[in-house]
Amino acid sequence: xxxxxxxxxxxxxxxxxxxxxxxxxxxxxxxxxxxxxxxxxxxxxxxxxxxxxxxxxxxxxxxxxxxxxxxxxxxxxxxxxxxxxxxxxxxxxxxxxxxxxxxxxxxxxxxxxxxxxxxxxxxxxxxxxxxxxxxxxxxxxxxxxxx
Length: 147
What we know:
The protein is built from 5 helices and 5 strands, in the order αββαααβββα. By secondary structure, the chain is α+β, with helices and mostly antiparallel strands. It has a single domain (12-120), classed as PAS domain (Beta-Lactamase), CATH 3.30.450.20.
């Protein structure tokens, strides 16, 4: 019985979604965490366009950035995590934190893009509530000071 390579074990067991799409945006790697987070099984996601997880209103901007990164070999964010919205298999949108990297072959040519993502919906909603409450409290303090 062949042993599973360590690199495959790392992808399979990562607590974050790991998604790799080729230069055409077709999903070629989709780990168990991606299935849990987005609600698409590997069977449902592999071979499909990244559009399955990108809300329609963000697709044009996503593909402009994706195509530019593939063409130039440079990502806009340079590996930094970005909070954004994504779409589940159910059609529900939710908040994720995602970081990107370009994947290169041995010659240095870009073969596609790797994304690591995690669901931050609960944290995002809590921060939104905290910001709203802070604005309310600041308004109350300002009103009390003016009286």
